[in-house]
Amino acid sequence: MASNSNSPNLIVVTGFGPFRNHLVNSSWEAVKELEKLGLGDNVQLKIMELPVQYSVVENKINWIWTELQPQLSVHVGMSASSKAIALEQCGRNKGYMEKDLSGAHPQGGCCLLEGPERIESAVNMKSVCKNISCPGVDVIHSSDAGRYLCDYSYYISLHCGSGKAMFIHVPPLSEIITAELLGNALQRIIQETLKQLSHLCE
């Protein structure tokens, strides 16, 4: 579990690598675009690519919270069937029976054997949705991140970071949905989130 001495200006943003027949994962392409844009003068941004493997994801997210101790950790994943960006409100503990790229799934299909069934983000995703607009793509609120690596990474991060995490699902890349468009959307979403979190601290 992270200590209370979070790095006040550090935001860690992760995307996922290739999986199944998706040789290009739009989440990582979007995160790389976000790195070019930055999050403003007073915000330090660190990006990381996560492989589609439960054990590696767990280790990397634990490392983010124990070693880097960011103000916020933002995880981005691809929803292959979606045309909108979805802001996920919570992570869920059980139901992870689908195997990862190494053919494994978590013991008992759980993120944490003794963990709560769901953990809510400290970020109010409905409020973020309401307060932003992203040209070229809809941004919606969701409370089911899907019981695969996306949901798994989110639950682990919410647990390690005491709720100071968010998960953003992005659609696949297309002629209309470009990496640049998604990178711009991520910038707007995260900047609005940081505004919300700063008000909570006042």
Overall mean pLDDT stands at: 94
Main sheet makeup:
6 strands, mixed
Structural class assignment: alpha/beta
Q: Count the strands?
A: 8
Strand content: 15-25%
> What is the N-to-C order of secondary-structure elements (H for helix, E for strand)?
EHEHEEEEHEHEH
What is the count of DSSP helices, taking H or I runs of 4+ residues?
5
Parts with pLDDT < 50 across at least 5 consecutive residues: none
Shape, please?
globular
Radius of gyration: 16 Å
- Main sheet: which strands, in order across? 2-1-3-8-4-7
Q: Please give the share of residues in helix.
A: 25-40%
First-residue to last-residue Cα separation? 24 Å
Short description:
With 202 residues, this protein is α/β, with parallel strands linked by helices. It has 5 helices and 8 strands; from the N terminus they run E-H-E-H-E-E-E-E-H-E-H-E-H.
What does this structure look like?
The protein is 34% helix and 23% strand. The protein contains 5 helices and 8 strands. The chain starts with 6 loop residues before the first strand and ends with a helix. The radius of gyration is 16 Å and the shape is globular. Helix 1 links the parallel strand 1 and strand 2 (44-50). The chain has 202 residues and is an alpha/beta fold. The relative contact order is 0.23.
